[in-house]
Structure formats: C-alpha cells, structure tokens
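User: Okay, second chain of the day. Same drill as before: sequence in, structure tokens out.
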Amino acid sequence: MTFGHEDLPALFHHADRAAISRQRESTQATRTQLLLLVLAAAAASLPAGPAVGPLRLPGLAALLAYAGVLGIGVRSTRRRARPQWQLNRSAAEFIKSLAWRYAVHGAPFGAAGADDEELYRTRLESGLAELRKMGWEDPRQSGAIPPGGEITGAMEQLRGRVYSVRRETYVRDRLIEQRNWYQRKTEVSRRATALWSWTIVLLTALGLLFALFRAFGSGPGGGLPGLLGTATAAAIAWHEMRRHHPLIEAHTLIEQDLAAMMVVMQTTITEDQWPSAVYETERYVSPQHTDWLARHSS
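Assistant: Same drill. Structure tokens below.
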C-alpha cells in the first residue's frame, strides 16, 4: 500500500497552498525592497543630469525608488504575508503529522479503540484553535472548503492494515520521503550560501579598494563606494533573511536523526514500541523542532 500527498485531508492541501503563496509574496516583497534601495543609491550617485521641470532625473528616480520601498512595506504590513505564511505552514505540518500518526497507529492513537476517531478530531480542533488565536484564517469558517473530510478514506484504509504494512508504508512514504526532502533542501542551501557569500566578499572587496583609493586622494567620487556599500548591505540582508547557513545545520541534524530512526524501525522496533517511535519521528520533522535547531546552530 502507498500513502501519498494526495491522501491527506483537504484542510492540509488548502493550508499548504496558502503557505506557498504567502511565502512567495513575502519573499518577493523583501527582494523588491532591497533592489529598490540599491537602485535609489545608484540614482543618487549619478550626476545631476537632465531635468524634467524643476526635478532632476536621477533625483526623481531615487525619489520613486524610496517611495516604492515605503509602499511595499505598508502593503506587506496590511496583508500580513509573512505571519500568514508561517501560520499556514504550521497548520499544514500539524495536520499532516496528526494524519500520519492516526493512519499508522502512532501515539496517541496506538490502540485500535473506537474512541480514536473522536480523539483525532479533538486533537485536530484543539491545535487549530491555538493557531486561530494567533491569527490563522481557518478556511472552513470562510467557506473556502466545506466542513468535514478531516479523515480521508486512505487514512482509514491504512489504519486498518496489519502492523507490517503500516510500518513499511510509514518508513517508505513518510520517513524516507521526508529524509530525501531534507537532503534536497540542504544541497540547495549549500549552493545559495556559496553564491551569496562570494557575492558579499566581492562587493566588500571592491568597496575596500575604492575606499583605499579615496584615502590617497584618487579614484572615483563618493557615489560609487556608497553604492557598493548599499549593495553589500542588501546582499547581507537577503542572505540573513533566507537563513541558509542555520538551515543547513538544522536539516543535516534532522536528516541524521531520521536515518537512525529508519534503521531502528526496520530492525528492532516492536509493535508495542511502534506508537512512541512514530511520535518521536514526527517530533523530529515538526517546524518547531527545525526552528529551534536553526536558532541554536553554530
């Protein structure tokens, strides 16, 4: 039996799509603001140039760039793109983890009792209620998706299988799939870290070189070093905002934990130990665990 992304509840898919959309919106807003700041610095470093009425073109370009930065900032604050991105991602991962635990008898759904379905719905609503307190927009309240459907047929089908089938499905379609995801993300972050680190070094070296020329009374005027300084600051801000380096450390540690858990699940875990092993695995892949590791990485 296989259990894939499409077998999860509709509420997960809505939160997942919303998280991706809001992440794209938030990232694009930050990128545009940084680019506009660099353009403003470039325009301010140019000579006075031709005029349009009482305004000089370079000054007008800088004015429009700074106004664009302010406008994007106001719009982002009103739309709350970043908070909604994080809330929807937390909601999606919470629903996904709870659905997997229910489907494979992970704790607290280890027993095949008649109350597990009610317990699942209670845990689900309790967790989502906490997210709503923080501003998460529940699509069921707005009518974006109909109520019900929190437990899919595939979840019930997998839950009804014998232990060996549930274990094989979980290890293959959850644990290994999640481990591969962390491997891909780590590789992407490594490439991005190398690119932006060398970009920052190059811009800083050029700024240092022009500052040295200025110290000896030669070289370009103050506009170009100022532009290089702004570009360097923008590159550093973008690199820090994307958190590539701490995420490399966090994802690597989680991948190692999942690799160890995969071996244990396939060799030594008994059916009695299975519910707690699933619970521990889901704790490893939670966004809160990743954020904690990223914040405390070296």
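Residues 1-161 form one domain.

User: Thanks, on to the next one.
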